[in-house]
Amino acid sequence: MTGQPRSLVVVGDSTAATYAADEAPQAGWGQALPAFLRPHLTVRNTAWPGASTKSFLDSGRGAAALDLLRPSDLLLVSFGHNDHKAFDPARYAPADTDYRHNLRLLVDGAQRRGARPVLVTSVERRVFDERGRAGTSHGPYPAAMMEVAAATGASAVDLARISRARWDRLGPERTAREVFLWLAPGESPNHPEGVRDDTHFTGSGAVVVARMLVSALRRLGVLSEEDVRGLDREMEAGEVGWPEVRPAAALGAG
């Protein structure tokens, strides 16, 4: 059965963004989503590295993303990695006030256009305690997002909780090796000196996160069986695909 043609618009930060070929193997989960979706669903990834709800809206990117929506489309909203940065007034959005308000603006904008908003809490960083148990890194932001979802009727995926459970099962070393952007010197021509990044993902890590998210969206009924493919299939990082330029580069004022 062929599903109804729809767009899935992603708004968020660096963990969701699509990266260019000269940034590989870094990838965001939004970049990996198409690998799990059937062709009638088009992913339009407007997530931007470094963005908070405040900077995304203030730059005009939020309005531009909302204008992409048509009735029956989906809007995935995932912010929180940068909203807490009180040292940066251009991005700081306190969890109990501005952050909630900004999320409501995005939810309301989607609902007015007949689209379905889905709030996605921030995927957890690679944070482990001395006993090797996965920890939390986003303070009050995931709970605030879930409360906005409940208050507005938006769907919600607690990706912070889901990912933390996954990192806990994998442990600190496998999580670094299989998910996060840990590269040895000389391993990648785009990162010749190597990198140890506990926030961002390799292509294979983006696949891991996208699989968790699509599975959750399927369980919620946001995506149907005819929307989804390949959840049980082993997938190579190369299936993510890196464009020549970031597709969100021209969106909004930046």
Keywords, please?
254 residues, alpha/beta, five-stranded parallel sheet, 8 strands, 32% helix, globular
Task: Write structural notes for this entry.
It is a single chain. The chain is α/β, with parallel strands linked by helices and 254 residues long. It has one domain (6-235): 3-Layer(aba) Sandwich (Rossmann fold), CATH 3.40.50. The chain has seven helices and eight strands. It has helices at residues 29-32, 53-58, 61-66, 98-112, 141-152, 159-178, 203-220; strands at residues 6-12, 26-27, 41-45, 74-78, 116-120, 155-157, 180-183, 195-202. Strands 3-1-4-5-6 form a five-stranded parallel β-sheet, with helices on both faces. The protein has a three-stranded antiparallel β-sheet with strand order 2-8-7. The longest helix is centred in the middle third of the chain and has 20 residues, at 159-178. It is globular. The mean pLDDT is 95. This is Lysophospholipase L1. Residues 10-180 form the SGNH hydrolase-type esterase domain.
How much β-strand is present in the residues? 15-25%
Query: How many structural domains in the coordinates?
Result: 1
- Supply Rg: 17 Å
Assigned CATH architecture:
3-Layer(aba) Sandwich
**Which CATH class is shown?**
Alpha Beta
Structural class: alpha/beta
Helix content: 25-40%
Terminal CA distance reads: 40 Å
| CATH homologous superfamily title | SGNH hydrolase
- List the helices and strands in order: EEHEHHEHEHEHEEH
Round the mean pLDDT to the nearest integer and report it.
95
Segments where pLDDT lies below 50 for 5+ residues? none
Which strand order spans the largest sheet, edge to edge or round the barrel? 3-1-4-5-6
- The helix count comes to 7
